[in-house]
Amino acid sequence: MSGERTVVHFLRHGEVHNPEGVLYGRLPGYRLSDRGERQAKVVAEFLADRDITHVVASPLQRAQQTAEPVGAAFQLDVATDDRLIEAGNLFEGLKVSVGDGALRSPSHWPKLWNPFRPSWGEPYLEIAHRMLGAAHRARARAAGHEAVCVSHQLPIWTLRRFLEGRPMWHDPRRRQCALASLTSLVFDDEELVRIAYVEPAGGTDPKVTGA
After folding, report:
1. Omega before 172 cis (within 30°)?
2. Partner of 147 at 20 to 30 A CA spacing, among 84, 109, 132, 209?
3. What angle do CA 73, 9, 141 make, to 5 degrees?
C-alpha cells in the first residue's frame, strides 16, 4: 500500500437480554445481558494496542453499551450514526424461530413472497448503501488511523457481501458475524484493499434469537 492506511472496524454488539426470544429489531429497551457486557469489555481489551481515534455506534441501546468500553479505553466520546442501525423488519416483536407461530400463520405469508429483496423488511441494497456511507464517514474521521463502528449482525454481513461482490440474499444460518466480532475494512486512501474478520469473544450461533 502506498497511500494513507485507515482501518474501519465494524463491531457487532454483544449478547442481548431477551428472555422472551423475540425478534427485537429496532424496538427500544433491549439492553446487553451480563454476558454481553463482558463481551464488550473483551473487545475493548483486544483493541487496546490499536490506533483507535474514532468510535461511533448505532443509536440502539445494545450498540451504545457495546461501544462504551471501547470509547473509555481510548478516552474517546462515542458518536452516533443512525446509518448503523439494525435492519427494519416487519416481524419486530414476534417469535420467528423455526416452529414459532409468526411464520406459521397464513396472515404473515404475504410478507415472505420475495426473499431476495427481502419483502419482510428493509431491502438489502438500501442496507448496504447506508452502511457503506457510515464506513466512509468513519474512514474520513479516522484518516490515517483506525475507527470502530458498532452495529448489528445483518447490516454488517450485508455490507461485507456487497463489498465482496456476492449476492446479498443469503442463508442466515451461515453468517460469519458472531457476537462482539470485528469485521475490519482496510483502506489505502479511499480504496478498500482488504477485509478481515476476527472473533475476540469467541464464536456464537447466528441462529440464536437474542444474539
Report:
1. no
2. 209
3. 80
Q: In sequence order, which residues have a C-beta less than 8 Å from that of residue 156 and are 6 or more positions away?
A: 10, 12, 131, 177, 183
Query: Which amino acid is it at 64?
Result: Q
How does pLDDT run across 41-85, given as a tens digit for each residue? 999 999 999 999 999 999 999 999 999 999 999 999 999 999 999
Residue type, 8: V
Cα distances (angstroms) measured from residue 161 to each of 95, 112, 158: 26, 22, 5
SS3 category, 62:
helix
Report pTM.
0.90
Residue 132 has, within 13 A of its CA and on its CB side, a CA count of 16
Go through the domains of the chain in sequence order and give each one's CATH number.
Answer: 5-198 (3.40.50.1240)
